[in-house]
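Private note to self, pasted from the team thread so I don't lose it. Backbone tokens:
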């Protein structure tokens, strides 16, 4: 997903869920900031590098593809963007390496998604926003994995877009090509993707890179045949799935506010959008590369307040000016803690499943602190009362 959904649509979902305008902005900011918090940005702010929630292309190109390098990449992408659906999925007659990668395939409504939402319960708005980013991406990034793998993430020639044009519906072959300075052309069905690389562990085979940004577009409806699925056809209807993502965010945030007692899988608050369902589906189905303006207009009509544009630098000055003891109480500091809690939870779950692709992990509550020094912040934070 892109800024249109992670920032503006998340604001709309938060406001419908009952948060105030100001609270909805805080949640939306943190949801979008997940796509911005790189090691480069953290270094600039002298912040814990383990809080990185994404990677710049330059950082990924410099990352090693040895065991340690691949584990570092995987920890970031499975924790925030490609949350695994089933870490114990049965796989027959394949190597342990393939099995480990297959079990990292992302889909919505997995156990880790429920744990992600619960991890934000009774915590700050930054934790809510981060959880909403992860939840939303389980819908957009479904059927891809957050670890470099050609066998899992590659696409082939048989990739078609389903076009709904007025009263007609037809399939059109998608043309992918690698052009770092090019732009997608949805009218002609031409999309930019990552370079074809036959190496199983190339970063070019990370996530949905081989399908370009097509999974991130709410209007996209496509079919393809992945090798991991025995070349059966996957039919991915983003307008319908993004609507479910939006309604699931509303339900999740009502739970986090305390309006709903439990959070369960496959539950969507369609009733909450009944007055605006046609409006929302029109935005989701519109063939445009970025829908920020439409979501912004809708959100401002909902609240009657201006939704200020996302500014990556908004909270960094306050973090830099805060004393060492007060940094964790700034918005940026709270986001860092939320990010490290999420990464710790996911990587520990991956490790406990017997999967080493995200590296070694130790359960603090059973073994005591044995991890990277940055994560001592989480241990100390647990000693504080939750908000």
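Design output:
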């Amino acid at each position: 997903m892109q800024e249109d959904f992670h920032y503006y649509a998340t604001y709309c979902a938060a406001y419908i869920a009952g948060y105030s305008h100001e609270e909805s902005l805080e949640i939306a900011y943190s949801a979008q900031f997940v796509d911005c918090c790189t090691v480069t940005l953290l270094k600039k702010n002298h912040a814990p590098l383990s809080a990185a929630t994404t990677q710049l292309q330059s950082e990924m190109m410099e990352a090693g593809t040895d065991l340690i390098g691949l584990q570092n990449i995987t920890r970031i992408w499975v924790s925030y963007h490609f949350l695994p659906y089933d870490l114990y999925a049965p796989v027959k007659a394949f190597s342990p390496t393939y099995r480990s990668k297959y079990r990292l395939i992302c889909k919505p409504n997995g156990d880790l998604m429920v744990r992600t939402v619960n991890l934000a319960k009774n915590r700050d708005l930054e934790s809510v926003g981060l959880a909403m980013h992860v939840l939303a991406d389980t819908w957009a990034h479904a059927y891809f994995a957050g670890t470099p793998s050609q066998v899992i993430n590659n696409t082939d020639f048989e990739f078609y877009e389903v076009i709904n044009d007025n009263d007609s519906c037809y399939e059109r072959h998608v043309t992918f090509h690698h052009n770092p300075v090019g732009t997608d052309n949805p009218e002609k069905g031409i999309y930019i993707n990552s370079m074809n690389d036959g190496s199983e562990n190339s970063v070019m085979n990370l996530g949905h890179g081989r399908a370009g940004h097509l999974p991130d577009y709410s209007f996209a409806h496509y079919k393809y045949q992945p090798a991991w699925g025995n070349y059966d056809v996957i039919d991915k209807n983003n307008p319908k799935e993004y609507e479910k993502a939006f309604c699931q965010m509303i339900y999740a945030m009502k739970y986090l506010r305390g309006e709903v007692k439990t959070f369960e899988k496959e539950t969507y608050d369609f009733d909450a959008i009944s007055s605006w369902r046609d409006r929302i589906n029109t935005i989701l189905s519109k063939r445009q590369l970025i829908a920020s303006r439409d979501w912004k207009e809708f959100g401002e009509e909902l609240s009657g307040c201006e939704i200020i544009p996302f500014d990556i630098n908004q909270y960094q000055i306050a973090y830099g000016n805060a004393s060492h003891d007060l940094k964790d109480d700034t918005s940026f500091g709270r986001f860092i803690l939320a990010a490290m809690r999420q990464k710790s939870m996911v990587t520990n779950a991956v490790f406990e499943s017997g999967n080493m692709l995200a590296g070694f992990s130790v359960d603090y509550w059973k073994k005591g602190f044995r991890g990277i020094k940055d994560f001592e912040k989480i241990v100390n934070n647990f000693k504080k009362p939750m908000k």
